[in-house]
Design goal:
Distance between the termini: 11 Å
CATH topology: Rossmann fold
CATH architecture: 3-Layer(aba) Sandwich
Order of helices and strands: EHHEHEHEHEEHHHE
Helix content: 40-55%
Radius of gyration: 16 Å
Number of strands: 7
CATH class: Alpha Beta
Largest sheet: 7 strands, mixed
Strand order of the largest sheet: 3-2-1-4-5-7-6
Number of domains: 1
Length: about 230
């Protein structure tokens, strides 16, 4: 299968679903990681232009750890809005990956970029499959299943499925640690140690799932899709 993760910022996928993406990769599936924003606002050290270049390099290096392809959405932080131009950009992201499964933010997450990314992906998954929607890429040939990843710290999230990431928790942390420009920012802004945060949330979800470490997901149920088998790892 082709698996596509779409996060708002560089580090969102790494924090919230990289363990699952690593599982998919280890099972032989092709993985794509898209960050819609260039991450150009999250620093007290760099200019926006400098930061965007740094975070692009970090995202590519992080994706390489699991053999994933990194896709850039080209939006600025804080500028993910619900308009036609943004919808078309997300359609093109999906068409590049031609995915069987799409994973993105939950609609109830804490950041407006996260919330709007979630909505744009919901709008685009169906439209990406329509040949008469003309964009820069040809229409995908399948309607992907859509899953929402956990929110930050699990706030306002009800889990429907879990993925055991006990064997991929270390690679998930390594992927996050590639985001060097964000580690200090997270500590200063949110008093958050990224590696500790990842392990704490994964251990809590693992406790719920009966394993050591887990990630939580909710499937977007919608017509005309039905699913009688598990497609998460």
């Amino acid at each position: 299968m082709n698996i596509l993760g779409i996060g708002a910022h560089p580090d969102d996928l790494e924090l919230l679903c990289a363990g699952t993406l690593a599982c998919y990769s280890q099972d032989g599936h092709e993985v794509f990681m898209c960050h819609l924003c260039d991450g150009n606002k999250g620093s007290m050290v760099y200019s926006s232009k400098e930061l965007a270049k740094i975070r692009r390099r970090e995202a590519i290096e992080s994706a390489k750890l699991i053999g994933a392809k990194s896709i850039w959405g080209g939006m600025s932080d804080g500028e993910v809005v619900l308009d036609l131009e943004s919808r078309i950009k997300v359609i093109d992201v999906i068409r590049q990956a031609n995915p069987d499964v799409v994973i993105t933010h939950h609609p109830n997450d804490y950041h407006s970029d996260h919330i709007n990314t979630s909505r744009l992906v919901f709008e685009a998954v169906y439209l990406s499959n329509l040949k008469l929607w003309k964009t820069n890429y040809p229409a995908s040939n399948k309607l992907p299943f859509l899953y929402y990843m956990d929110t930050l710290a699990g706030v306002n999230f009800v889990s429907m499925e879990y993925v055991n990431i006990t064997n991929t928790i270390d690679i998930k942390i390594k992927m996050m640690l590639k985001m060097q420009s964000q580690l200090g920012w997270l500590k200063e802004m949110h008093d958050c140690d990224a590696a500790e945060f990842i392990k704490t949330v994964a251990r809590f979800r693992g406790f719920q799932a009966g394993v050591l470490y887990a990630e939580a997901f909710a499937q977007q149920k919608m017509y005309p899709q039905g699913l009688t088998k598990r497609i998460l790892p």
